[in-house]
Amino acid sequence: MGSLSGANNLVAALAVAREPDVALQVFDEMPAHGLVPDAWTFSTLIVCHCSKNSLDDATRILDFMVENELCPSVATFTTLVNSFCRKGEMQKAFAFQSPSFQQHM
């Protein structure tokens, strides 16, 4: 897992394979290899969880990302909002537009 880009590529490949649990294992091992996950790493994990309809996990990752002052991309938000809408959870989708959420961005 020599570099951050290599680890991110591995996480992305696992996301495409819809393997969020394995992707999280890679993520958890990154610090042991001296790698600090970046916004791209977190966004990829969020998309991976959304593809498996694990929206609670995706939201927890987003919260962690925001708490650690990493800025999610517009694509990450779009993926989350679309996933909540497909699941029929409109209130959760609209929560991303709330001023209280956006003040943390």
TrEMBL record:
InterPro entries: PPR_rpt, TPR-like_helical_dom_sf
Highest taxon in the source lineage: Eukaryota
PPR repeats: 3-37, 38-72
Protein keywords: Repeat
Coiled coil: none
Family of this protein: Belongs to the PPR family. P subfamily.
Stored NCBIfam families: PPR
Protein name: Pentacotripeptide-repeat region of PRORP domain-containing protein
